Amino acid sequence: MKRLDQVLAADGVNAELELVIKDVMVACKDIAYKLSQGELAGILGATEDENVQGETQKMLDVISNDLLKDILVANPYVRGVGSEEEDYTIAANSDGKYLVTFDPLDGSSNIDVNLSVGTIFSVLEAQDDTAGDNQEVFLQTGRKQVAAGYVLYGPSSLLVMTTGKGVNLFTLDTNIGEFVLTKEALQIPEDTAEFAINMSNQRFWEPEMKQYIDDCLQGEEGPLGKRYNMRWVASMVAEVHRILIRGGIFMYPYDSRDPSKAGKLRLMYEGNPMSMIVEQAGGASSTGRMDIMDVQPEGIHDRVPVVLGSKNEVAKVVAYHK
Ligand SMILES: O=P(O)(O)OC[C@H]1O[C@](O)(COP(=O)(O)O)[C@@H](O)[C@@H]1O
Ligand SMILES: [Mg+2]
Ligand SMILES: [Mg+2]
Predict the structure, then answer these.
(1) Do residues 150 and 274 lie in contact, with contact meaning Cβ atoms separated by under 8 Å?
(2) The CATH number of domain 4-183 is 3.30.540.10
(3) I need a labelling partner for 273 at 20 to 30 A (CA). Which of 118, 160, 178, 285 fits?
(4) For residue 234, which atom of ligand 1 is closest to its CA?
(5) pLDDT band at residue 238, thresholds of 50, 70 and 90?
């Protein structure tokens, strides 16, 4: 079986980018191990701190963030890093050209109940010599990503990633401590009858989203003419992974709970990397009104409404917004 480094080399990834990706994986393997120890390692539960988004940090949010940050800041090819758990971007090496943003632990409300969580990462190239502690150098659209991926910590730990040449799935072989290729060229089915959305926010959605979900719920008798199933894991990584394997549509739309926020999910380390993966696997990804990867970020923690998954179903949701 092929190892991650062999696949990256075959895809023509240069040695510098390969080392950046490998360092992300060193941290992810450590996170996978810590998660598998759970209560035994005494690292479950919350800290007393909040992140810049005003969310209480779990102990594992902080530990995962430190693992990724420390290894990447020491990498000679990394200019800077940006994280959900860091208020500001952090400078690494002024000669490095890669910028890495990450959500160190996604779906963190699942940690204490022993359900799936993940790590999401995105890699951009610096376009000038701006230092990594100036967020301006990061503010590029998702189209500029040179690599994106996630690690899903579930019954097995999986890496799903792309460098723009399709999407590959690797499984962590804990015997050898390596991610090995277990599925090549993932393709999302174009049609689906399975949606994922947090229905408890229904009354706060825009009318377009309310209408689409109302129509889904009418099943065969409704305008969409099919009976839908629903899933909600509350972990975007697990949700996107299910969609990559069997199709589906995932939505975290704009809602009016806090009108100043464009959505719950963050553009640069949730929306963009997941959009690159989904598009590379033949799916689609939109805010409902434009492609997520065309949204120009204005800040490292910008939020974005997210609608992604099976191409034809995403097109239907976009049509409701026209
Ligand atoms: O708690 P809710 O509203 O169901 O939101 C769940 C969503 O929030 C997230 O957990 C946000 O990510 P973080 O856990 O990294 O903050 C997504 O993974 C998930 O899709
Ligand atoms: Mg997240
Ligand atoms: Mg997170």
Answers:
(1) yes
(2) yes
(3) 178
(4) 6
(5) very high
ipTM entry:
0.98
How many degrees, rounded to 5, is the angle at CA 230 between CA 226 and CA 231?
150
Task: Answer whether 233 contacts ligand 1 (Cβ < 6 A).
Answer: no
What ligand 1 atom has the least distance to the C-alpha of 55?
16
Q: What is the pLDDT of residues 151-162, one digit of tens each?
A: 999 999 999 999
CB distance 249 to 243 below 8 Å: yes
Distance 86 CA to ligand 3 centre (A): 11
Q: Does the global pTM surpass 0.95?
A: yes
194-320 architecture in CATH? 3-Layer(aba) Sandwich (3.40)
Q: Which helix (H) or strand (E) holds 207?
A: helix 207-217
Q: Of 119, 124, 146, 123, which Cα lies nearest the Cα of 11?
A: 146
| 76 CA to centre of ligand 1 in angstroms | 32
Measure the CA–CA gap between 25 and 29, rounded to whole angstroms. 6
> Where do the structural domains in the chain lie, given as residue ranges?
4-183, 194-320
Binding region for Mg(2+): 84, 103, 105-106, 270
Report the pLDDT value the prediction gives residue 187, as an integer from 0 to 100.
Answer: 98
Distance of alpha carbon 121 from the chain centroid: 7
Q: Is the CB of 235 under 6 A from ligand 1?
A: yes
Please tell me the distance between residue 58's alpha carbon and the centre of ligand 3 in angstroms: 9
Rounded to an integer, what distance in angstroms lies between the CA atom of residue 114 and that of residue 145? 32
Q: What is the pLDDT of residues 263-304, one digit of tens each?
A: 999 999 999 999 999 999 999 999 999 999 999 999 999 999
Ligand 1 site, residue 106, Cβ cutoff 6 A = yes
Roughly how many angstroms between the first and final C-alpha of the chain, as a whole number?
47
Q: Is the CB of 107 under 6 A from ligand 1?
A: yes
Check if the beta carbon of residue 122 is closer than 8 Å to that of residue 275.
no
Give the separation between CA 210 and CA 273, rounded to whole angstroms: 27
Identify the nearest ligand to the CA of 53 by its number: 1
Q: How far apart are CA 312 and CA 322, in angstroms?
A: 16
Ligand nearest the Cα of residue 108 is 1
